[in-house]
Amino acid sequence: MENKLANILSDEHRFKKLILESSNIDGYPLVKRAIIGEETIFIKCLPFDNEKLRMLEYLYERHENSDYFHAPVKNRNAFIVAVGDASYIVSKELKVHADYPEPEWWAAALSEIHKTYVPVNMMADQSQLVFEYAKLWNSAQTYMEEDIKIALSTLLGYIQFPVCQNDKCVINHGDPLFSNVMLKGNAPILIDIENFLNVPKEFDIQRHFWDYAIEEKDSTFYRNSWIRFRQAYENSFCMINKVTLINLYVIDVCRTVSWFYLITLDETRPDYDRQMND
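^ thats the sequence. predicted structure below, dont judge the formating
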């Protein structure tokens, strides 16, 4: 299978043919499924500008042999395959991880990506986070009740912009959620690093614990998990700024509420049916 896939990826005509023959996945308009031999692969279109594609290729290269992050299939000397004006990655199918990884695993995974060295000329503007969330907020307001708009506007009023002005920006995974944990062999591994951000490390941390709060209903267990995570993370990397953590948490609460309104009420979204089923 390895040689056959390598031959397809290195031949633009054959790869185009594979994309056309691949099956669509409901709710995932950018992802297709294909079978090569007895193995399933996923082909993902990357609708990014050249700057982000260059950064993404760099991250795949840096974490190719990571125990915590899943890199796509490498084609000769690159992970991203260009076909005409489009760019793709190809990943092998992984098993779903049934159990929530331990806090120490999350601390090791996030600290590894936060330590990623990135040349200054490749670092994107941290304001991308604010711009993306502002677009989401503006789109969602069409569907929000007036009292929800007022509540979120009031909440955002407590945030001083620019957020995290004096905090060091690092590479964040962007979506360190349980739904992005799969199994490689018998070990958990994070997928979907394509949503990376150049922001303070506290973004990933609050996002992970926001997701964990949904999964874990026992408040005592949740608190103990936070203590274990914080100790392991700070021992591995550096101190967590609690003020920044709270500021980013508030922003992400507003983002999440906006997201829920969009996925449940905007029937024109290509992933509407999948999100409603989830």
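The two ends are 33 Å apart (CA to CA).
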